[in-house]
Every structure is written in C-alpha cells, then in structure tokens.
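Figure S7 source data.
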Amino acid sequence: MSAPVLVIGRSGQLATDLRVALSDAGRPFVQAGRPDFDLTDPDAPARLVDRVAPSLIVNAAAYTNVDGAESEPDLARALNAAGPGRLAAAAARARVPLIHVSTDQVFGESHDRPHGEDDPPEPLCVYGRTKLEGENAVREADPAALVVRVSWVFGPSGQNFVAKVLSWAAARAHLTIVCDQRGKPTYSPALAQALLTLGARMEAQGPGAPAGLLHLAGETIVTRDVQARAVLEASRVRGGPFAQVDPIATADFPTPARRTLNAVLDTGRAARLHGIALGPFGPDLETTLDRLIGPPKADAGQKA
Ligand SMILES: NC(=O)c1ccc[n+]([C@@H]2O[C@H](COP(=O)([O-])OP(=O)(O)OC[C@H]3O[C@@H](n4cnc5c(N)ncnc54)[C@H](OP(=O)(O)O)[C@@H]3O)[C@@H](O)[C@H]2O)c1
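Tokens for the predicted NAP complex:
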C-alpha cells in the first residue's frame, strides 16, 4: 500500500472536495481536522506528520472568516501563519512535499491589472496579513513547498458566496451587493483536482517539480454583483430562490475587513509551467446549482 496523502482540514469546502477527489482516484489519504487535530496546537503538526508518514501534504485549513479576523487577530495568526509554519518545518524534516493554500487577499489595489506571483503583496486586512505571514513562514521553513494562492472559491460543498446569495435570496426580495470588487470565481472540485495533479508532480520529484508561489483561479473575471445575478438567474430557472440585486460601491458598504477591489489573479504561470488552467464560471455554476437545487425546470418562464 502506498503512503497516504495527508489533507489538513476536514469539514471545510476545499478539504471536502480534496476528500472526494482522492476517493474517486482510489488514493489512500488521511484527513486531519478538529477535534482530533488542532493546527493551533504547537506540537500537533510534527506529531501528525510522524504518525501518518504521508507521501504528500495539502494544507486546506485556515481561519477564513475575513471579517471575524479583525476582532480575532491572534487566532487568525495562529491558524494562518504559526500553524502552517510548523507544518512546513515538519514536512521539510520528513522530506514530504507540501502544498499550502493561500489567498488573493494578500494583494491590495496598487494597480488595475491581474496580480502576478511576483507582484508585491499589500494586504488590506488582518486575514490577508496573516495569510501573507503564513506564506512567508511556509516558504522559509520549507523552500521546496508550493504555496498556491486561490480566489473566490465556490462549489456544492461549502459556505461560499454562491450559497450565501441563495440563502439571502430565500429571505429577501432585494440584495445589496458590491459592484466594484472583482475576482475570478474558482470551482472547488476543479481546484482540488489541480492541487492533486501538482502534488503528484512534487511526489515524482522530476525536473520542473512545482515549488514556490503559484496562482490558480477560474478563467472568468466578474464583479460580485454580476456573480450574484448569475447565481440568482441559475437558481430561478431551477425553481430556487430569486431576488433583485441592487449594486452598491464598496465605499458605501462598510464591513469590518477591507477587501481588495482587485482580487484578480494572473494565472499564466500555472498554464505556462504546468499546463493547468481552470475553466469558466458559467458551466461550474450550473453544475453547482444542479447539485444544490436540481436541474433547470422546463417551465421556468420569464424573469420574475
Ligand atoms: N473560500 C474562499 O473563497 C477562499 C478564497 C481564497 C483563498 N481561500 C483559501 O483556501 C483554503 C481553503 O478554504 P475553504 O474555503 O475550504 O475554507 P473553509 O471552508 O472555511 O474551511 C476551513 C478549514 O479549516 C479547518 N480548520 C479550522 N480551524 C482549524 C484548526 N484549529 N485546526 C485544524 N483545522 C482547522 C477546518 O477543518 P475542521 O473544521 O475539520 O477542523 C476546515 O477544513 C484556505 O487556505 C483559504 O484561506 C479560500
């Protein structure tokens, strides 16, 4: 029996889709999440890596509540920076390839074009700052690690923006959604597959094995209000919740955390170096709503 893939995180969106992808591929894996494994426990990563003796580690665990991090910076830092740093040290000691997942929110608004891997980070909130600290801690402890920044992750298994829009629309006829934050929605099952493809190349240790920083995101750039309208229309034709979207500028819609208006990642390096490109938003949204609501109804009729 080959050594298992170790996935950090159990109940989360990406962790769930990694489990599905590994099960579908028939690969042995171990998933580590609370309550058995706590990434904020300083001794836990080394103990876990010693016990599991994995062939690959994918860290899908994080403090992901962007607004919550503003009032819980210590917990966010423990989960997003200190824990990943210790995990990377354990991976390096055991010579096990590590993929660590990071975020578009390490970037700010210094320019309008998509952010490349070599653009200087400029996080605008505690979440982004702690994720950047985590990237640095991982890369310092394990220079062979791959840090993958991802963006606006959605799919059938998580509490993501798509699921939130559906739940808001079930309760309200009008949704106020920001119209000046743009990003690339990224389908979590496809992201999980791509991470495992990169991981397999790291395990093979051939020339050009992935390492360092890499951006992975879907191919379609949208603003949040456009994304919300697409979700609601796909829901309406399935007999699901529908609401009108009222656009608002971020400046007029204060939240505890300041998010970058430009969350667009340049994914050219993943395509050029690794032949990996994730797909457009529309078909992945349809698949997600097929799973969450059901197939489109023949009599969906005109727009409400
Ligand atoms: N969602 C997005 O739109 C988005 C965008 C950009 C980047 N990202 C990044 O993508 C990665 C995956 O995000 P996601 O959407 O899957 O997040 P999520 O659904 O919020 O999942 C968070 C994960 O963290 C784990 N976790 C939380 N506290 C833990 C602890 N103390 N010890 C161990 N595990 C803990 C949870 O596992 P248990 O509950 O089982 O412990 C869960 O699997 C993260 O690195 C995130 O920063 C996400």
